[in-house]
Amino acid sequence: MMQQLSVASLSRDQKFEGFLLVRSAEQRTSSNGGKYLDLTLCDTTGDINCKMWDGTVQPPRQGAVIKVRGTVQEFNGRLQMRIERLRTPSAEDDVDISRLMPCAPEAPGAMLAEINRTISRMKTPELQAILRELISMCGDRLNYYPAAQRLHHAERSGLLHHTLSVLRAAEAVLPLYPFLDGDLLRAGAIAHDLSKTAEFISDESGNVSDYSAEGQLLGHLVHGVAQVKEAARRAGVTSEYVLLLCHMVISHHGQPDHGSPRPPMFAEAEMLHLLDDMDAKMNEMEGIIRRTPPGAFSEKIWSLDRRLYHPLIHTSVSSSEDDSFSAADAYSGLL
Amino acid sequence: MMQQLSVASLSRDQKFEGFLLVRSAEQRTSSNGGKYLDLTLCDTTGDINCKMWDGTVQPPRQGAVIKVRGTVQEFNGRLQMRIERLRTPSAEDDVDISRLMPCAPEAPGAMLAEINRTISRMKTPELQAILRELISMCGDRLNYYPAAQRLHHAERSGLLHHTLSVLRAAEAVLPLYPFLDGDLLRAGAIAHDLSKTAEFISDESGNVSDYSAEGQLLGHLVHGVAQVKEAARRAGVTSEYVLLLCHMVISHHGQPDHGSPRPPMFAEAEMLHLLDDMDAKMNEMEGIIRRTPPGAFSEKIWSLDRRLYHPLIHTSVSSSEDDSFSAADAYSGLL
Amino acid sequence: MMQQLSVASLSRDQKFEGFLLVRSAEQRTSSNGGKYLDLTLCDTTGDINCKMWDGTVQPPRQGAVIKVRGTVQEFNGRLQMRIERLRTPSAEDDVDISRLMPCAPEAPGAMLAEINRTISRMKTPELQAILRELISMCGDRLNYYPAAQRLHHAERSGLLHHTLSVLRAAEAVLPLYPFLDGDLLRAGAIAHDLSKTAEFISDESGNVSDYSAEGQLLGHLVHGVAQVKEAARRAGVTSEYVLLLCHMVISHHGQPDHGSPRPPMFAEAEMLHLLDDMDAKMNEMEGIIRRTPPGAFSEKIWSLDRRLYHPLIHTSVSSSEDDSFSAADAYSGLL
Amino acid sequence: MMQQLSVASLSRDQKFEGFLLVRSAEQRTSSNGGKYLDLTLCDTTGDINCKMWDGTVQPPRQGAVIKVRGTVQEFNGRLQMRIERLRTPSAEDDVDISRLMPCAPEAPGAMLAEINRTISRMKTPELQAILRELISMCGDRLNYYPAAQRLHHAERSGLLHHTLSVLRAAEAVLPLYPFLDGDLLRAGAIAHDLSKTAEFISDESGNVSDYSAEGQLLGHLVHGVAQVKEAARRAGVTSEYVLLLCHMVISHHGQPDHGSPRPPMFAEAEMLHLLDDMDAKMNEMEGIIRRTPPGAFSEKIWSLDRRLYHPLIHTSVSSSEDDSFSAADAYSGLL
Amino acid sequence: MMQQLSVASLSRDQKFEGFLLVRSAEQRTSSNGGKYLDLTLCDTTGDINCKMWDGTVQPPRQGAVIKVRGTVQEFNGRLQMRIERLRTPSAEDDVDISRLMPCAPEAPGAMLAEINRTISRMKTPELQAILRELISMCGDRLNYYPAAQRLHHAERSGLLHHTLSVLRAAEAVLPLYPFLDGDLLRAGAIAHDLSKTAEFISDESGNVSDYSAEGQLLGHLVHGVAQVKEAARRAGVTSEYVLLLCHMVISHHGQPDHGSPRPPMFAEAEMLHLLDDMDAKMNEMEGIIRRTPPGAFSEKIWSLDRRLYHPLIHTSVSSSEDDSFSAADAYSGLL
Amino acid sequence: MMQQLSVASLSRDQKFEGFLLVRSAEQRTSSNGGKYLDLTLCDTTGDINCKMWDGTVQPPRQGAVIKVRGTVQEFNGRLQMRIERLRTPSAEDDVDISRLMPCAPEAPGAMLAEINRTISRMKTPELQAILRELISMCGDRLNYYPAAQRLHHAERSGLLHHTLSVLRAAEAVLPLYPFLDGDLLRAGAIAHDLSKTAEFISDESGNVSDYSAEGQLLGHLVHGVAQVKEAARRAGVTSEYVLLLCHMVISHHGQPDHGSPRPPMFAEAEMLHLLDDMDAKMNEMEGIIRRTPPGAFSEKIWSLDRRLYHPLIHTSVSSSEDDSFSAADAYSGLL
Prior knowledge:
Six copies of one chain form a homohexamer.
Chain A: E1 15-29, E2 35-43, E3 46-52, E4 65-75, E5 78-87, H1 108-121, H2 125-138, H3 141-144, H4 158-173, H5 182-191, H6 196-199, E6 200-202, E7 208-211, H7 213-217, H8 219-235, H9 240-251, H10 267-291, H11 318-323
Parallel strand pairs in A: 3-5
Antiparallel strand pairs in A: 1-2, 1-4, 2-3, 4-5, 6-7
Helix pairs in contact in A: 1-4, 2-5, 2-8, 4-5, 4-10, 5-9, 5-10, 8-9, 9-10
């Protein structure tokens, strides 16, 4: 991606050329009857209202990345960009989307490939067949869905990121507890949250506008059980694995108050619940600690029901440590 | 049904002829190598161990009603019946099964017919189609399943009894709240507990031996959602009614602590929850009050978390009132 | 009631003649020493500040309906009505008070008559005597008191409306549960909330300004028990019915967290609690669903601890259905 | 009281003469048609079955103290006393009832006198009038009622004991919090538990057989409010003190889960709740600690939800300290 | 203290001379390069921004009392004081600090002396030694620390005030429960909150800016146990008293939800918990009742989870009673 | 260890020679005045009462392993061993203690060595110093203490086993969450439960007789904080690490109801809590699953508040899998 100005740094009369994310876009009619585009475009540093007076251009869809060229102006005391050209990125464009929206630290394609490799290495054909159906039923949404509207993994491809992290954690602890059925735990790790693709509505940038009716009236756990049963029907699997996987999905929040009408009732289900909780908490805490100066306490975090402390001991090592979290975390790639 | 002695009234050397319920039955081998039947037979007043020394007779299955002729003997200080003849009832036998096991006060066939009439009168074809599939998926079990192992409607055909009672209560309150969608409420009343036929394992007398693995790991609410989705798939229904009915099933226990991961989120779902709760409580309380003398308190009832009081004012009117609950409640009919 | 303009539709220089509700009224002294009336008048569509410069007119009391004639003016950018004439309605005026304030859908006189007819048909003289004393102790307030400051039945005559609805629900379910003592349940339905007339302070339009000290320090359940005991003393009743009715009053909220130090301990008390809850929930939900478009979810309702969904299936039938709830619900009558 | 043998020390063929408590007594008819008395008599060390073969003697009432003379025999391997003479104690008998049943450490007459002196010294005539009515309404029961069936102050006159202890605690803390209204707190201390005389059924020895219907269906807090209102009506008091005292009664358990539908809403009500809790806990803990050896932990005490520890440091001073709790605590007096 | 104007009464062009509390103070540099002092000074009636243009004066420290002489001016529509002279109070100044900040009603020196006298009169050398170490470890902070940032005893020397009040309450109730070990209860009363001096950060005026890291990560109960152990180590005490005192500190909040991982497990620990709770509640309620007019209810108090009522009966006696709480409560003395 | 008979397999008149664990032992005096030893000896299959009539032998201490030679006899219908010779094992004896008592699957020496190696590799000298002091303060008890009286790791050396498992889990997840401070997490893993050596009283076989007074009155979390502070004092460490480690100890149970007055307030503390919970749950579940046949549910496990299911799918692979848990898990070694 070529060098481009960040939205937060723009000032009046500046020329801008680069890639931006479409937060909203619609065609309007001006008082003189002409049509124009009204857009809100953004990168991770902020957003700006834009006008394109060419009435022939169709509005890009929300969540898309576009390339624009324009000039920054001031209108009623606020900055506004007058867009001269606008196009969708081509394959040659080297867009760094992590500068446009919060993104998972790895590319969705690579993450999905790792999950598929794990499925291929399993020794339980029934589970393999069900998992492949489930992933196929998610379709394209798996690439960009976040894991939540707020809180943990609220980022483009966050659902894949969280799924893969739980899977990796499962691989890490399996050697310590060899009585666990490895393939059952792996299958639960991969399947547990896939129904989030039906629970809320996300655009391609990973921005969630709302919960779906299905998401509100059933939730991704109950819907997930129906999905596992449907996948098993399609794959022709009728063995006990269907019931076990259904139970892992419905119990992975651990207790009724958190949405699970049944607690985990075998060890692999309990381990899935623990790793899911661990990964969500670590992801959320990492974000909070980064925003809190060493030696200080955060505001009260309602989802965790506590304030967090950023230990002073992190101060001395922060320069090198911080490096490992910022630039290196990002990934570049074609959309 | 001809007059027969009650099990509790039997004494040594008495002849017995009549119908009894098979609590358990197995073929054994005596010390001299001969085969014989060892049975426990019962009616609602008690049970008795029985032997039939004819090694050629196959053991009847648990939960079945059989006709026996035999003689009461004493063995090691306890009564035992030596059975001379044993056969399954024929169509001519007029068996009053309500004397053999706790039974719903109406015949299963009549109850199912009333439910089917209600379905036929509905004006919503999608709901009719789903309900007919659901009832068909229950098969024969609907005739004899109880609604619970203990507590409310723990009786043969108790599931039908409870289902019909909730449906009747729905009809009774619908005129008071005309903003409710009548067919949606009726459909919820009929469908809400049907998955109990997969939750536990009952013999034909309505005696529950245990919960099924599916019942323990998922429960009848979660399983019920999958059943509604499967029924809708078979019936080719894809409209919003599928989601609404699924929500009514998953939310009908009202709150997470009682097994519903979602509270009722529209008025028909709330009304279903209230009527389900009302019918279960009334059925349970009626049984407790009957066992408690007027002016006295029951033991603490754990499921209700309280003791119950039988008001003294019931005393004066008990003679006529009691009549309306005993003989008249029973029904006679062929099995 | 003659046609009159709604407050929300008023504009400058318009003439107005019609009936309005007094939200507040006081006599003031202008800077030149003259006395005038400052009033806030309203109908269900909004309110408007009014001045009447005739210093001899006494301010009407809050909650009253008055007939006014005046002219709409603008003062400091807001509309204001200059009132030329003002009088209390006469018997000939055909005031539709349901346009002036939220009202129960039936007239208070008719509702009270239905309750009294039910009492007359009872076969238990002790309960009849107590109920008549209780109703008499409420006096005039029973006509206009709402059932709550907010939430369910927060409308003029809402207390009568809720009382009658619970009574009707009791009549509807009694045939289904014949072991219940009908008169005891009817008496509980009538008596359970009557002490709300002492719990808060309402003007004649059903507008609650605050809770009373008695309401805050004891609540209508505890106060209700004392009222039942006082009514029984006056009526000379000493039988068990007094204790049973006291228990139904104190237990009708069902559990300690909801204000009942005792749970319902006999079946009629439990049924009263269930029907009271049902009627309150249905009334509240009906209002919320009406304010929510089909296919949408409401905001989170704190009293219910959930969001509500207005099913899409209601859309197609809404035209005819809505009719049955609006105009037909209102009643007209002399004050 | 003359020296008499303790029941636990009796052995076969011993003569016994002394006072015993009647646990139960009834006239029976022997197989030869003669009438005799069958009694269970006890002191604090145990009980013994007794027979009096004189058919003309009427059975004494349960809870009474009687003087008996008899001989200990053995029947079917258990001790039994054959009673030769039996009479009610006369005024000359110096009965130490604290050897016959658990008793409050002070005489009921003295305790009541102290309470009445406190009432006389109050400066609030309304409160004085209400309190005198309330005490009068308790009648004779105040002399012997315990404060509970089990737990704290389960002893003859325990209700007076607890009432007086709370009153003394109120006097002790009033100088520390001078903003409190002393008479209001004193009145609450005296009135708060008086309705326990209607909550359960105690014989004259302070032995509680059961809760009353009123006690179960309303409880002493709700009933207490009605009693205060009735007392105020009789005394002709209508001032705010009636409401305040009612609130102190209904709120003195502090929170809904403990039976108070309202929390204490002014400082005197809160202080009453705290002192009531303090006195109950101290009385219960004192009993538990005495039964637990120094250095040991008690069993788990369910009412306190914990085990208690008897500190070792008490060991060294136990000899003198124990004195202050045993003999000196007892009181002697005529019944 | 000489008469001085209250901050709330100041008006433009007025001269002021008197003592004020330093809320904040810093040396700044004006646009012309000169140095000046910018201060916020206050008394209990309000605060005022002040400037002292003499660049040579060092800023006083936050929480200190200073004597100032200046003139009130207006700047940008707000009052501001131009300070001509500023000095720290001398021993001759008779400063009434209770007019400058919320103060405990007794002087810290007198309160500490009373606590030390109680320690001296104890008969348990081990407890005396531990308590003297603990008080010594608090150092100077004991003089001015409040007991809390908000809620009860949020006043200069509030920690000493609360400690002494609990100790006095212990002395008041000890005669009523003679089985309690008096010295152990006294020791607990003195020690229970001393670690609050490490829990938050207070300036000398008793104003708390924040919790310390130790206060947030451990809390004063856990930290208090470590302090008691350290004090015992320094004092060379190893007997059971160390463990008992540690338990009293860790259990004095009564239950896990309030910060005590153990409930009080012997009677002295329970009594400490009850008296601590009583004193905190009475102090908080006294403040709320004073701010609420007789006959009115307060807003909902979140820490108490209820509204409070100021009884009307207090009205008639308020004139004399109020006196006893205001002027007489204050104390005068040198800092 | 030579072949020896298991206690459960013993029968009358059998000779026995082998090693057994002393459950209890005392010297008694027989009716003829002679002294003898009365012992209860056991292995993991059961226990047996033993007599040794040689009055000169001193009773071995409870929890010790001894070598005995004797003859099995029958006395009053129960087996009893008459012991002829008894000695403590020598270094040459190859005792397999895992046959005598439940033991951790690895030798304590090896486990402690692995923990010490981890400490040595840390890069934080303050943490190393504190950890070494803490381990040294545990002394010999670390070798044999279990992690609990019941539930998880209730086995000889179970405390070391649990500590090491949590440490290994920490190493396993650290690469997945690189923002965590590795040494801080390792230190928490090692230190979090060490105060269990003071919480209960275990003999050398890992059998817990009771909780200590310190364990009951403070608990291992609160005591652990004091131990960390004492260790830091001895090691001369005063940096923030002391506070952080104290917080990890006090918060590692996660919430107040589980004994932690503070929740984990930085990410390393949260991770420690999660891993501690994971290891305890996995250890407990592994034991339960092993005792439950495939396809069956366990009884309700109170500590987990649920029943557990042993999936049928484990059946087919059980033969090889079971091997990996039984013999291979045991370790042999000299005591």
